[in-house]
Amino acid sequence: MNVPLESMVDTLVQLIKIPSPTGHAEEAIQYLEERLEPFKNQIQLERTAKGGLLATLAGEKASPTRLLTAHVDTLGGMVKEVKGNGRLRLTNIGGFAWTTVEGAYCYVETRNGERVTGTVLATHTSVHVYDDARDQKRTEENMEVRLDVRVKNADDVRKLGIEVGDFVSFDPRIEVTESGFVKGRHMDDKASAAILLELLIQLVKEGKRPLLDTHFYFSNYEEVGFGANSSIPAQVREYLAVDMGAIGDVLTTDEFCVSICAKDSSGPYHYGLRKNLINLAEKHDIYYHVDIYPHYGSDASAAVRAGHDLIHGLVGPGVDASHANERTHTDALDNTYRLLYHYIQTESL
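Structure tokens predicted for Putative aminopeptidase FrvX (349 residues):
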């Protein structure tokens, strides 16, 4: 098995550089589609009504089928108010603490496609002015965007084309270190999307087929809870979400492993599928950990909650400081890729 690690990292960096807050991920989906276009004779491509991308690779057997999914939508913001002082109040897209974006560079995309840069700040930032600069609660009402344009009031801002409802993307500050770490925002879940894309391309280039017809579903609404919970082909029996593995106290997942989730806030994942994944990891000497994520939900659990009768599971590369200044390692990409490669060669439960 040839693991295209360099290509995975390059794809991850390219994906992270493409802004794609939930609800406005078209450019990221288009990037994936363009990467797969040269292989359209071997891969069936379909856009869903919600704008996701479903890529199907024929296997040795046509039924039942399995589905692997990763999402390209990310955390972000939306203009909630154009303030009288020329600054912007935001509402969050996805679940993050405002402390994690304080000081972040960002840009606002207007409805005509113009991008205006700025910085996310607390309203009482200056320690030279405000008694509560250190203690002010970082909540929605106390955060604002300072635009990099001379504006004095709301009218000046609106002349730029900025209005309520415009999307705001945070600068990912992506960097790959010599030691193999990949750090920045939005490893969740563009790391997994890069793995799935490169796995699919590698299979086609090498003329290899999975055992079963396999769908690769790139979703675009996961961060708000309903990414790949629809447009699931009728014959799908096993549904594996590939999403970041959480790291923290009590958990064993680290930045180098593929994490196999036993349970998250939605409840347990399918026990038989979990055991199958563990057996594959041990058989092929793949570094893994099994964990329980206390504050987490995936597209797999969303699909089951939507009423689909599925064998569902969740795996992914370990990511530190999730929904903040994230970091993973190329080892985690490698281990996740290898587990998925072997998984798609197995019979369905």
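The mean pLDDT is 97.
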